[in-house]
Amino acid sequence: MNHSQLFRNIKGKRSFLCVGLDSEPDKIPSSLLKGKDPVFEFNRRIIDGTHKFTVAYKPNVAFYECNGSAGWETLEKTANYIKENYPEIFLIADAKRGDIGNTSKMYAKAFLEKMPFDAITVAPYMGEDSVTPFLSYPDKWVVLLALTSNKGASDFQYHNEDGIKLFERVLTVSQKWGNTDNLMYVVGATRADMLKEIRKIVPDHFLLVPGVGAQGGSLEEVVKYGMNSSCGLLVNSSRGIIFADSTDNFDKVAGEKAEEIQTEMEKYLMERNLI
Amino acid sequence: MNHSQLFRNIKGKRSFLCVGLDSEPDKIPSSLLKGKDPVFEFNRRIIDGTHKFTVAYKPNVAFYECNGSAGWETLEKTANYIKENYPEIFLIADAKRGDIGNTSKMYAKAFLEKMPFDAITVAPYMGEDSVTPFLSYPDKWVVLLALTSNKGASDFQYHNEDGIKLFERVLTVSQKWGNTDNLMYVVGATRADMLKEIRKIVPDHFLLVPGVGAQGGSLEEVVKYGMNSSCGLLVNSSRGIIFADSTDNFDKVAGEKAEEIQTEMEKYLMERNLI
Questions:
Q1: Tens place of pLDDT for every residue, chain B, 275 residues?
Q2: From the CB of residue B176, how many other CB atoms can be counted at a distance below 10 Å?
Q3: Bridge-based pairing state of the strands B164-165 and B160-161
């Protein structure tokens, strides 16, 4: 999927919502626990209940790996289920990988070749040759960590050389490795006004914004400072949607929560004359 | 395993060799390919052939993930095989994980609880709360990326704030999160003289040094600048040992290569009166 196709999907769904499938096994509704693969069944119903309002899903790989090889099977089944049933969905592996070239190549194979992910989140610490192997797949994307929304972000991401913070250097330098059709950035939303400065460095790239919803970020602020002429935003919500209800009605409630966000997103897209 | 036990094992084996199990499926000797799990069979024979000369094994997780959930099963079998047969071995998951706290907690569960790894490599970009969940397991370790040996290391790791490079900040700041019993650092060996400066910041921590052997680093230089009074070094070799021979004799040749390095290591340990 390229940049135009992603924007077209956003216009079609009137949404730039990404649903994070942080499907922690211990939080799955008890009604599912007697099944063979409760996490997959949970995901399947969440996906069926929310896909109309959603342009992207983002399984967080840690929540599958914690179940070992069985968890990886659940991840594979989830990715395949999405692509078989909702092929328009932009599918992101939230894996935060990154290693020397020959190793990143193997991670790329795992997520972009063996599984049908469109994109993978990558950590920038090891530099160019740790990122470019993921960029060699046509129509696949790297979502590079730039500014994250957690407390520890301040430990290193603001390390400042001559007025350039590390995350700004990541944004500047990495633009040479890819383009707006295969590279987007994770930009934390806890301080939405920082998006204004970030947009000066990356005006045209898509940004994946975590932390709206349960973690308290404001969608309105993110749109105000982050939206561009092709939307340029995927805004993620995980727990606020998938764990909104713990009864067997969880999929219906998740759909309602996703629709609430989609409705707000539709309003912003209309205000900007993008739909 | 704590710092003293690791040093005791080094003295017992007269070696500080870590063998990297970068067991790329495409490079497995053809004689194994008809078996049910060629990579596990390869690892098993490599381990049996090299364990006498080795204090640590380091499976590189990417080379298992590239086979999907089946690859994860191979990883689980490999980790269990090592701990069941050679419990004195220090077992490192080279996984380069790191995410927000609740996610790192799940990665920690995957590697330090569901699998019997003693340690996991972690990327520092997201800061303290991405690292500390791995440190909450008694006798388990984080191996934190500081200075890596790849070309891309220069893209960000040297980002310099007031004379402090990013990798130096990682070494300084992270020492508050753990101690010499649960935290060691990845320090690339392509420029061994940099170890001298690094030892000023972390005189007592163990360092995991990749890139000696096939990648051309000099063991003598690493020892000269990096060894401390409790050895303080694990030096890794991967391809130079495990892929030294492509016939069915590969395990014997791997053992010979490992013994060559162990013999050199023994000499350095004796020169320093550590054994």
A1: 999 999 999 999 999 999 999 999 999 999 999 999 999 999 999 999 999 999 999 999 999 999 999 999 999 999 999 999 999 999 999 999 999 999 999 999 999 999 999 999 999 999 999 999 999 999 999 999 999 989 999 999 999 999 999 999 999 999 999 999 999 999 986 667 789 999 999 999 999 998 665 445 689 999 999 999 999 999 999 999 999 999 999 999 999 999 999 999 999 999 999 99
A2: 8
A3: antiparallel
Q: How many residues does chain B have?
A: 275
Task: Identify the active-site residue in B96, B109, B252, B267.
Answer: B96
Binary contact (A100, B124; C-beta < 8 A): no
Length of chain A in terms of residues written: 275
The two tokens of residue B211 are 């890139």
The answer to whether A166 contacts chain B (CB < 8 Å) is yes
What is the fold, at CATH topology level, of the domain defined by A3-271?
A: TIM Barrel (3.20.20)
B96 torsion bin: left (phi>0), alpha (psi -120 to 50), beta (else): left
| Ramachandran sector of residue B207 (left: φ over 0; alpha: ψ -120 to 50; beta: rest) | beta
What ipTM describes this predicted complex?
Answer: 0.96
Nearest CA in chain B to A75: B69
Interface test with A, best of B69, B104, B113, B160 (most A CBs within 10 A): B69
3-state secondary structure of B100: coil
Contact B150 A169 (CB under 8 A): no
Return the closest-CA partner of residue B251 out of B71, B93, B92, B21: B21
CA-based nearest distance A270→chain B, Å: 34
- From CA B36, how far away is CA B223, in angstroms rounded? 41
